[in-house]
Design a protein that fits this description.
Elements: E1 11-15, E2 20-24, H1 30-48, H2 51-60, H3 70-78
Antiparallel strand pairs: 1-2
Helix pairs in contact: 1-3
Length: 79
């Protein structure tokens, strides 16, 4: 997550085969973990592929391949 105004990164999440690692940087604030958790929730929703995923995928404009762009991830985690 970038700081408002394009400043330094506050945090990030990296997805592995069976794990997700959240890194909070020095510039993180209280909202950073919540934001990164949004990315985790979106990936979990995609993997369990429920009706809710179909609604979210349509809202974000995800293609038939189900691959999420960085922009789609940020839209979900920010809104």
């Amino acid at each position: 997550m970038m700081a408002p105004g394009g400043g330094s990164m506050r945090g990030q999440i990296a997805f592995g085969d069976a794990e997700a690692i959240v890194t909070l940087f020095q510039s993180a604030d209280l909202s950073t973990f919540v934001h990164e958790s949004g990315h985790f929730f979106l990936e979990a929703l995609r993997l369990i592929n429920t009706d809710e995923w179909a609604s979210v995928a349509e809202y974000l404009g995800v293609g038939p391949d189900g691959v999420l762009t960085v922009e789609q991830h940020e839209k979900f985690a920010t809104e």
